[in-house]
């Protein structure tokens, strides 16, 4: 129970950083309509030839038909540049939260993983951050691993949707579970190269990804019949999806 509470506390700390993100949100995109009105806010979605959605400073969401728009002035994070909008680039100089769920699979066993990342989008092509997770490499109880990790992600293009590659590296913590005869548990280093595609660039975005996950862990199993040491390097193929906001 204590280890679950520790995980919840860490996850709550990371989620609370989203409050800072909301405070720093920039409402400087401009939409100039053909009839002369100017809308100022944050563009959340755009479908060329159809419509554009914008969040105003008041928090209200509005939708404008594309044939009503004369010009769009995008805010890049430093200065606004005028251009006809083709695709909405990912905002930079801001914090993104990403919550993910994935399947960990191999011929020796399968499990699931959940994680939360807090990423700072420094440039359109580069995001850096950190995260915390809960990994179960196979269904045996008491074998959960709680990784803390750094995360670096590279976007290969800049637009409404983009492929990306990245790597996570950190340390996974394991805990003894005497109810399952695990009298000693030691975690170890974790590495997780991955690639995927992001769908969307404003508002709620979705990532579909795959990667390889490596995790070191050691266990001592003590029962009335034997004492056994398990020295394990988990190797798993990871398949999953995440939401980013």
Q: How much of the sequence is in beta strands?
A: over 45%
In N-to-C order, the SSE pattern is: HEEEEEEEEEEEEEEE
What do the pLDDT scores average to?
Answer: 83
Tally of separate domains = 2
Q: How large, in whole angstroms, is the Cα Rg? A: 22 Å
Which sequence of strands runs across the widest sheet? 7-8-9-10-11-13-14-15
Number of helices: 1
Characterization of the model:
It is a single chain. A hairpin with a 4-residue loop joins strand 5 (about 70-75) and strand 6. By secondary structure, the protein is mostly beta strands. It is built from 1 helix and 15 strands, in the order H-E-E-E-E-E-E-E-E-E-E-E-E-E-E-E. The chain folds into 2 domains: about 30-85, Roll (SH3 type barrels); about 95-245, Porin, CATH 2.40.160. The protein is elongated and about 85 Å long. The chain is about 10% helix and about 65% strand. The strands form 2 sheets. It has an 8-stranded antiparallel β-barrel with strand order 7-8-9-10-11-13-14-15. Strands 4-3-2-1-5-6 form a 6-stranded antiparallel beta sheet, with no helix packed on it. Keywords: Signal. This is Outer membrane protein beta-barrel domain-containing protein.
């Amino acid at each position: 129970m204590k280890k679950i509470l520790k995980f919840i506390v860490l996850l709550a700390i990371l989620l609370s950083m989203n409050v800072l993100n909301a405070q720093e949100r920039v409402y400087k995109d401009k939409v100039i309509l053909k009839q002369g009105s100017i809308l100022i806010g944050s563009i959340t979605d755009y479908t060329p030839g159809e419509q554009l959605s914008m969040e105003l400073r008041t928090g209200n969401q509005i939708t404008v038909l594309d044939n009503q728009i004369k010009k769009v002035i995008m805010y890049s994070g430093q200065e606004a540049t005028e251009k006809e909008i083709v695709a909405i680039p990912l905002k930079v100089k801001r914090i993104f939260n990403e919550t993910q769920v994935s399947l960990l699979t191999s011929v020796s066993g399968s499990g699931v993983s959940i994680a939360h990342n807090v990423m700072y989008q420094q440039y359109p092509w580069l995001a850096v951050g950190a995260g915390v997770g809960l990994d179960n490499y196979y269904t045996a109880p008491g074998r959960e691993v709680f990784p803390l990790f750094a995360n670096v992600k590279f976007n290969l293009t800049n637009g409404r949707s983009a492929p990306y590659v990245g790597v996570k590296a950190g340390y996974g913590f394991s805990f003894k579970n005497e109810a399952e005869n695990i009298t000693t548990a030691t975690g170890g280093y974790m590495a997780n190269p991955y690639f995927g595609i992001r769908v969307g660039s404003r508002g709620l975005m979705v990532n579909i990804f795959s990667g390889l996950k490596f995790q070191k862990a050691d266990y001592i199993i003590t029962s009335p019949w034997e004492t056994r040491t398990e020295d394990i390097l988990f190797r798993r193929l990871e398949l999953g999806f995440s939401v980013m906001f």
